[in-house]
Amino acid sequence: MAQTVFETLDEVRGAVGRHLGTTDWVAIAATEVGAFAAATGEPGPAEVVPPLLVLALTNRFLPEIVEVRGAALGVNYGTGPVRFGPPTPVGSRVRCAVDLVACEDVRGGIQTTMRITVEVAGREEPACVVDALSRWLS
């Protein structure tokens, strides 16, 4: 997996519509699911990964794919639409694919919308698709 590196905010603006990369596959272990359930009080069967854990993985994976060196500060600003697919079994291998779908100027920098798709090995339908909003401030 190669990371996409932007040296300037203008480079980010010019990349709208581009696929930025895909992470390596990672297995979701039962210990991770148990720790998440204990921390959040998330009920559910031990054989299924909680959907909010799948969503949280996007914050883990995004920095593996994208680096904006032209920003003094990057902030997770929230999300646009989030769509969950069918349940993901514990032990599944997942990876994230990221596309830059929008970029707009905001005071002090830019705001990007990156569509992150959490893919599950051996399955066509993704576990989660989220439009992640980030602010990159200069």
Main β-sheet, in a few words? 6 strands, antiparallel
Number of helices: 3
User: CATH superfamily, called what?
Assistant: Hotdog Thioesterase
Q: Globular, elongated, flat, extended or rod-shaped: what is the shape?
A: elongated
- Which regions are unreliable across 5 or more consecutive residues at pLDDT < 50? none
CATH topology: Thiol Ester Dehydrase, Chain A
- SS-based structural class? alpha+beta
Structure summary, number of beta strands: 10
Overall residue-averaged pLDDT value: 94
Q: How many distinct domains?
A: 1
Reading off the top of the CATH hierarchy, the class is best stated as Alpha Beta
Give the N-to-C terminal Cα separation. Answer: 27 Å
Please describe what this structure looks like.
The chain has 138 residues and is α+β, with helices and mostly antiparallel strands. It has a single domain, classed as Thiol Ester Dehydrase, Chain A, CATH 3.10.129.10. The chain contains three helices and ten strands. It has helices spanning 9-13, 30-40, 51-65; strands at 4-6, 19-22, 26-27, 48-49, 66-68, 73-84, 88-89, 93-106, 109-120, 128-137. The strands form three sheets. Strands 2, 3, 6, 8, 9 and 10 form a six-stranded antiparallel beta sheet that branches. Strand 8 and strand 9 form a beta hairpin. The longest helix is centred in the middle third of the chain and has 15 residues, at 51-65. The chain is elongated, with a radius of gyration of 16 Å. The chain starts with a strand and ends with a strand. The model has no long low-confidence stretch (mean pLDDT 94).
